[in-house]
Amino acid sequence: MDEGAVIREILSIPHRCCICERLDRIEFDYMCEIQYQVTRNDDVKSDFIKKGFCNYHFWCIASLTTPEAIASIGTMLIENDSFPSTNNCLICEYLKRIEAEFIDESVKNITVTTSENAVRSAMRFCQPHFGLIMKHINGEIAEYFSNIQKLHKEQLLGELKGFVEKRDKRSERNENEGTSWWRAVEKLVGRKGMWGK
Ligand SMILES: [Zn+2]
Ligand SMILES: [Zn+2]
User: Fold this and answer.
1) Is the pTM of this model over 0.70?
2) CA dihedral over 136, 138, 140, 144, signed as positive or negative
């Protein structure tokens, strides 16, 4: 493979945390599915009555379904005296399971010696996911991985500075600079609604 092309590709995409990015899509699909299933599928319904949604996911669901669907969901919970607690959420539970699989997969990709460096270098992580991965690796691999993350941090810093400096000449901002502000938030605290609450 043309290494230059790989690097160009890596540099052309907005650099999000690769786990947060995948979870965002999965979360959206799952929320669409669950809001439909919760009033129609008896197994999902009884699981939902036991667990409910956390504050964050309840409001997300409310914004993507109809008022009538929310009225049915509300009726179901209130009739069953099922009041959501921050410890339980059908959606958080599902996402935590997938997230754990992604962490395992990332650790494998980082530690398998046959992984190409270009693949490793393209794996970016927010600080919370970086911390979770570091718990599973050590020695030279951990050092190499930390150094890659430092490079990503420096690159993001450069993009953030470019974004701020070009406040009066917005058209000169490149794509990465344009998204740097919200990627900085993701870098620091992870994706919006990570781990619910
Ligand atoms: Zn992340
Ligand atoms: Zn939740």
Assistant:
1) yes
2) positive
